[in-house]
Every structure is written in C-alpha cells, then in structure tokens.
Amino acid sequence: MIDHTTPITIVGAGALGQALALGIHRSGRTIDRIVSRSEHRGGSLAELVNAKLVSTCEGINSSAVILCVPDDVINDVASQLDCPPGSLVAHCAGSRGLDVLESCRQDHTHVGSIHPVMVLARGGRGPEAMQGATAAIEGDEVSEPWLQQLARDLGMRPVAIPPERRALYHLSAALVGGLMTGLLAASADLWKLLDLDRATAVDALAPMVREAGLNLQELGVPGVVMGPAARGDIGTIRKHLEELECHAPHLLPLYRELALLSIPYATEREQLDAASAEDVHKALDSSEG
Question: What is the rounded CA–CA span in Å between residue 183 and residue 169?
C-alpha cells in the first residue's frame, strides 16, 4: 500500500530533482535512492537526504518513483524500471500526459504527474521556492491523492489540469518562468549602453520583478498591467521606439507585441478609451518597417 511512509526514489539530480528531494526529506518522508549519472551532483544530493546513489534506473524496484528527467526521455527511463505491481511512478513534465508512462501502467503500476508551477534554477532557493507555489497534478485513483498530499507536504497547492490541455497549461507557465527570463536578461543587457554592468542592472531590476509579482497576486488581472501603452503615453512610446531603433533593433518586434498585449487589459479596466487605444496602436505601428 502506498502512503506517506513509502520510501521514494528520485530519478535525476538537476534543479527540480534537488528541490523535490530536499523538500521531501525535510517534510519527514524517506528518500531511499537518488538516481543520477553525475557522481558529484547526485552524490552530494544523496548525502544530504540520507539516500543511496545509483547511476541507472535498470532493475529499480521501488514502490514510489518520481522522474525528474528531461521530457523527451521520460518514456525511455520509465521503461527501464522494474517496479512491482501496485507501485507508483510519476513524472514532473508540465507539457506531457500520462501516456509517456504507458510501459509502467501495463505493468500494473499506478502512474501520475506532479509539476511545480515555479522557476527552479540550479543553485537557486530549491525547496523554499516551492513554498506557496501551485502544483499541477494528474493521476489515477491511487496516484492522484498521493501526489496531492505530497504537494501539500511540500507547501504547494495542488490543482488538477485537464489532460487534453496540458500543453496549454505549460505554455502559460513557460511564458512567465521561461520566456520572461530571456526578457529579463535582455533588459539587463541594455544597461551596458549606460556604461553600467549586468550586476548593477540586476540590482536595479530585480526589485521591480518582485513587485510585479506581488502586484499580480494582489491586484489580479487586469489591474497588474502597467506601462506607457497601458497609460496611453504616446510620447514615451515614441522615445522608446527611437532608442530601440538606434541601439537594440532586435528588440523592436518584441516591444511592439508586448505593448500591444497591454492595450485590451487597459481598456478593460477603463484606463484607456477607444480613441486613446487607437492612438497607441498607431504609435506602435508607425516605426514598423
């Protein structure tokens, strides 16, 4: 029977594997194995959670296994497991359904998935970053409640995502946790043009990012949407476009699209009327070539 006392094997010692393993260990649950081909990273993690380090999944017969591996290899890794009937195998891929664990299901194993909606970077805050986060859960009559409780034990809020909409859900998370990080990096690099280094830029921009996140939580949508396009500040928009054309033309299309995205939210909360919204559209279109 699978319950909170069942020892767990974590496959993968990357950022997600580390965060989950440490969080599970701190919650009072038992980690029995860390599977990693990296003796240094995997060995360090195994030592921290009092687990055994192994280098391959072949022959692993644990009663509970969580796969923290790249999406494209989940199926191959799962097929190497030798879990007994009635055991549980879960993956952590946000965009993949349970079909990638079909080989386990055919062996009468309960399958599921748990995906933290959080940015987990190697060397980052690890399990602390998951506190208060949401976790997308999918599973069967055994795996789903077990994974829901695991999420709660890690300080996360479990939610169910319709299986046919997993890719859309993951897209939403990737826009913020993945693509936005590229935007943040590009924004920081603009400070080089001010003869200031990246570290100075990060010190300046990071508090803004934190405040934007708090505003999203406290003000919701559309209240969180701000900026010159949302205000109808045509003069500032034109100055931004001029600077981009001169110094960072590769960011022009991105600036336009992001500015255009804010317009319907600004009109929704009646910050922009129809005429002002049209003026913003024209200003953004004026330098498109």
Answer: 20
Q: Which of 115, 61, 57 is nearest to 91 (CA)?
A: 115
Can you tell me the distance from the alpha carbon of 163 to that of 149, in angstroms, rounded to the nearest whole number?
Answer: 20
How many helices (H) and strands (E) are present in the chain, helices listed first? 13, 8
Q: Give the tens place of pLDDT for each residue, 61-107.
A: 889 999 999 999 999 999 999 888 999 999 999 999 999 999 999 98
Extract the tokens encoding 283. Answer: 């200003």
- If one looks up domain 8-161 in CATH, what number appears? 3.40.50.720
Confidence of residue 45 (pLDDT cuts 50, 70, 90): very high
> What token pair was written down for 89?
């195998």
* Vertex 109: Cα angle to 108 and 113 (nearest 5): 140
Could you give the CA distance from residue 146 to residue 84 in angstroms, rounded to a whole number? 17
CA distance 94 to 174: 9
What percent helix, strand, coil does the chain show, rounded to 5?
Answer: 55, 15, 30
Instruction: Please indicate, yes or no, whether the overall pTM of this predicted structure exceeds 0.90.
Output: no
Q: Tokens in use for 81?
A: 């497991």
Residue ranges covered by each domain of the chain: 8-161, 169-286
Angle value at C-alpha 71, between 254 and 160, nearest 5 degrees: 85
